[in-house]
Structure formats: structure tokens, C-alpha cells
Amino acid sequence: MNKKFKSMIPITIYILVALFILQQCTSINITSASIFKSSKLDTYPYLKDGVISDDYTIQRLPSRYDPKITYNATHNFFLVEGDDYFKKIDGNGNELITIKKEEHKDGHTELATFTHYLFNENGVYDLSEEDIKEVLFKEIINQDRSLEPKTWIQLFDEYYKAAQVVVFGEELPYKDKQDQGFPVYFRIGKEWTKLFTKRNELRARGIDALKYNHKGYPPKFTRTIVLKDSSQKTFSNNEQEHYVHLYENKESSIKNYAFKYNNTSKIKSIFFEKEFVYATLAGGYTPIPISYTGTAYYKLKIKNSTLRFKEKAIKPIFKGLENHFYWYILPDAYFQNTDVSFLKFQYPSNHNNSGSNGLYIVKKIKDKD
Q1: Residue 93: exposed, middle, or buried by beta-carbon count in 10 A (0-12, 13-18, 19+)?
Q2: Concatenated DSSP letters of 91-160
Q3: Highest mean pLDDT range out of 58-72, 237-251, 252-266?
Q4: Are 167 and 117 in contact (CB under 8 A)?
Q5: CB atoms within 10 A of CB 304
Q6: For the chain, how far is it from start to end, CA to CA, in angstroms?
Q7: Residue (of 265, 272, 275, 278) closest to 298 by Cα position
Q8: Mean pLDDT for the chain overall
Q9: How many other C-beta atoms lie within 10 A of the C-beta of residue 60?
Q10: Rounded to 5 degrees, what are φ and ψ at 251?
């Protein structure tokens, strides 16, 4: 090795170190500079603008906060609970009906957990029906919560044994613990009865049974199914994989969540274009960057089709892009029933925000005639 070559080694090292520092610790782009960016990426839309490939499309559903999505396997449809609405969507991704969420003195319009029954103050919608209409309650019992415990138990047992469908509703609004309770709904034939619990009645987390006196009375209904993002370990009703196993009602957790989800497709990042410093060392007390915001370019492959889009992203200095996507898909047992899935984008900051936060439906484009 000649002397001239040896003398170049320290200079090369210094240059590489300098480039590394510029890339990692300043807002200057090197690896994500525009000279490395394919011109094809300029055609990628934001999610909010709609995404389309030859076979699939991504379309926005109105929802700012945490939506809840379930699936009815018997009739092949989805139920979506948004900020102020409930939607029924068929297995092709078509919206069949939207019902507005309304507040009332007993809470609000309630899609009972893991059911296709939508309850309001005075009646119920059976969302599995083709012709969906409100059915008024035949009776509303114990609304003032005044029944004696013994009388209530006898009445509850009588209705429970006669009913084909029994649903335990959500907790009622209460000012103090003495007001705690919830409604129980019974369908006997084609008629519905609403029975309020005694005062100070608690629920078991897991939504399937009363916590204390009535563990021998499981609900009676056909369960809907949650979707899941396996990479985020999150279900489409916003429950985390870890926590569902901690519920008091273990049997409920098994029935509702113990499906196999084996989707191998992932949302893959192709390119990241650094734009702004997002956070600095020591909580902003130093100028040393520890993460950046920018525009990331993605592809989502479904079967033989690829959807391409861009979104704002956050990248820590020494890590990959943070994942702000939740792609909810059905369990393996039902995966072939439909080409519909759901995508939630949840960018965590107003800084450099694209305005795409929310829920999207991913569905196959209807075949052309």
C-alpha cells in the first residue's frame, strides 16, 4: 500500500463521519435527497385523496377518533361504529345503511358488544335483517330501579328462560356508585323487552356476564368477529392483544379473541424524504435532533395487486419509521369470505400533518361489465 493511498484513509473516514453526522443529526437530506428519489413517487397520492390500483381501492370513511369494526360471518357483512354513526357494509364493501348515534338520558345509541343489535332509548334495530327497521320495546321494566332484589331476580330468570336472544347492555351513566347498572335486553319471539338492573350492579369486563349474581346466565346471541392488525397486536375494537387475556371473564376472552390471524402482507415503506426536526435531545433543551418528520412512500400488496401512496411519518435517528398504520383483516377462518379490509391511519402530531388521520375501507373494484 503506497503512502499516498494511506494518507487518503483518514480523510475518507472523516468525510464518511461528517456525512453520517449531517444525515443523522441535521435536517439536511443525504440518503433521502431528491436526487435519489424516483420521479414515479411524485404520482403517489395521500390516503385522504383516495388510492386506487388495477383491482383495489382505498376509500375514506368519516371517523376522527377510534372506530370499532366487527364482522358477521353468517350474513357476510361488517359493522362500523364511528364518531357519530353506525354503518352496515356488505362483503363487497358497499354501504347498506347508516344510522346516526344519538344521546339520550340512559346514555347513547348502543351497538351491543359482539352483536348485530343496535339499541336506543325506545327500541332496537336488528342489523342482520335486509329490511332494517326500528322495533319498539314491548315493555321497559324497572327504569326507576325500584324493584326489590328478590322480585328482580325472579323476573330476570323468567324472561331469560323464555328468550331466544339475551343481550347485556353497556353501563348506564351514574353520579355515584349506588346508581351503577345497565339494561338487559330480551327477545321473545319477535318482541323485545328492556329490563334495567337493580342499583349498584357491576359488569365484568369482557361484556359477557354479570360480575356477581348471574354468572350462570350467559348471553344468547350469535357473536360477531373482530378483525386484527397482527403487527400492531391490536383488534378492530381497539383492544390490545395483551390486555384481553387479563379480563376477569376468561371464557369470554377465548370466545371473542382466540382466532388465528395469519396475514403475510404488510404495508412496506419504499422511500423516506426527511423534512423537519421533530424532537431534540433532552426534551428540547439541546439543538441535537433525535427524530425527524417527513414524507414516506408506501406500497400495500394484496394478492396480485399493489396499492401505492404516501403519508407523513416520523423517523427516529437510529431506528426505522414509526408505524402509524393499523391494517385490520379477518381471521384465517373467514379470510376468503370477502376482499374487504380496513385501514386506520393515526399520525400522532399536528406538526407536518397531512390531514389523513382516520379510517379507510380497502376493497376490490367491482368488475366491469
Answers
A1: buried
A2: TTS-EEEEEE--EETTEE-EE-TTSSEEE-SSEEEETTSSS--EEE-SEEE-TT----HHHHHHHHHHHH
A3: 58-72
A4: yes
A5: 8
A6: 72
A7: 272
A8: 82
A9: 17
A10: -60, -40
The alpha-carbon radius of gyration of the chain (Å, integer) is 27
Residues near 344 by beta carbon (within 8 Å), at least 6 away in sequence = 67, 325, 326, 327, 328, 358, 359, 360
CA distance readout (Å), 305 to 87, 293, 301, 343, 365? 27, 29, 6, 16, 11
Would you give the DSSP letter of residue 22?
H
Q: Pairing mode, if any, of strands 305-316 and 289-302? A: antiparallel
* Cα 289 to Cα 284: distance, rounded to the nearest angstrom: 9
Q: Tell me what pLDDT residue 145 has.
A: 85
Rounded distance between C-alpha atoms, residue 318 and residue 298, angstroms: 20
Residue where the block lists cell 369470554: 252
Q: Give pLDDT tens digits for 204-245.
A: 444 444 333 456 788 899 999 999 998 888 899 888 776 665
* 266 vs 345: CA distance, rounded Å: 14
Q: Are 200 and 177 in contact (CB under 8 A)?
A: yes
* Dihedrals phi, psi of 338, to nearest 5 degrees: -155, 155
Contact 79/111 with Cβ under 8 angstroms?
yes
For 136-176, the pLDDT digits (tens) are 999 999 988 889 989 998 999 999 999 999 998 887 766 55
User: Which pLDDT band, with edges at 50, 70 and 90, does 350 fall under?
Assistant: confident
Geometric angle at alpha carbon 312, from 308 and 316, rounded to 5°: 115
Mean pLDDT of 284-306: 88
> Would you kindly state where each structural domain of the chain is located, as residue ranges?
1-30, 37-54+261-364, 75-221
Q: What pLDDT, on the 0 to 100 scale, is given for residue 266?
A: 81
